[in-house]
Amino acid sequence: MNTEPAFDVIILGAGAAGMMCALTAGQQGLRVLLLEKSNKPGKKILMSGGGRCNFTNLHTAPENFISANPHFCKSALSRYTPWHFIELVARHDIPYHEKELGQLFCDRSSKDIVNMLLDECAAGGVELRLNVAVVDLVVGAQIKVTTDQGTFHADHLVVATGGLSIPKMGGSDFGYQLAERLGLSILPKRAALVPFIFTDQHKALFAALSGSAIAVSVSVPDQSTAPTFQHQMLFTHRGLSGPAMLQISSYWQQGHALCIDLLPGIEVLAELTASKSHAPNQTLVQWLSHHWPKKVAEALLTWQFPDWAVRSLQALNQQQLQLVANWLGGWLLKPSGTEGYRTAEVTLGGVDTTALSSKTMACQTQPNVYFIGEVVDVTGHLGGFNFQWAWASGHAAGQALLESKRS
Ligand SMILES: Cc1cc2nc3c(=O)[nH]c(=O)nc-3n(C[C@H](O)[C@H](O)[C@H](O)COP(=O)(O)OP(=O)(O)OC[C@H]3O[C@@H](n4cnc5c(N)ncnc54)[C@H](O)[C@@H]3O)c2cc1C
Fold it and tell me: Does ligand 1 lie within 6 Å of residue 47's CB atom?
């Protein structure tokens, strides 16, 4: 009987983390089988960044990640930095640019990144199989994966099956279920980097402004440790979106209010008082239209202060101006919920990192099984951080596989 396993490692999931792990291990001479359930590798890469893939962020730091153990991501991120990925991108002559805040995007298309990863996998002799359904999985000293395309054996298993977001694009609970089967705990999961919906009276207000955006800063008062995000807020047919809202959604929980500073960086009362003295005839709406599109100023002021919106500044007393300033500086709003996994960019929570090695991503109790990428309880902020985690954790596991083979 041939006891030699056919592969050193079987990787489940040809997304960002799985392909990075496969190319790293393959190029070091390991025999790698990469199994993907869908008909294409890297579907989320293809749809990311509006089709241009925000593939990393120059300012990547552990503070850009949410995890029950904020230290867990540090080792992998420090050993595979944005510059390592940029070097790879440059080697493939892929044109890119910094959009803002260190966010790097492809000039042409996300396809460039997927093709690059596939070329690198091919260079490492990785065997990629698509449309594979895993039927059974035996985890022991050896790994046996039974699929509709045959049964495969390996020394190691890497789980890179991603999170629950966008089920149509491959979002699946496979990795969580497997982790549970192996006795690992799963930290509570929820949709993150996701738009808010409102089903109360705000819905019609926001729907009427759908497509307009203003710069805000937003926080969650109930979550004192959550950061404040300053960026654009977009009105939608169902509620609020845009980068500021997506970012804060990762910290928001059902029932919490958002506190939105509608004119960040502006001393509103001082500006209103000064305007009252040098342009006393302008209305509140006219004054706010210097900062926002007129349509937004009109709708929000009429909503909040129906009797004052078109009054001149001189007709408003100091107490009234103070109330306007208070509202603009901290509008408290309670979303009804989020759009959920249907549109969320990521899944927060997941495989508890206390069961994993931060150096190798291997399970402490089952050292030949590794969890990488989004399935792990490490979630990046918006801006290329989630891909950087996928590259870094995939690379860490890929390197560890070789070390484990040597020892
Ligand atoms: C619309 C959208 C835009 C995004 N834009 C960005 C961005 O610009 N920048 C950024 O940093 N992040 C972005 N993200 C987040 C980013 O895509 C993910 O964090 C990242 O893809 C996670 O990588 P992963 O390899 O862990 O999982 P995935 O990329 O989701 O890959 C998991 C793979 O596993 C496969 N799979 C699942 N179950 C099985 C199974 N049982 N057997 C075999 N295969 C299986 C899936 O089909 C999939 O191909 C975006 C996400 C979305 C949804």
Answer: yes
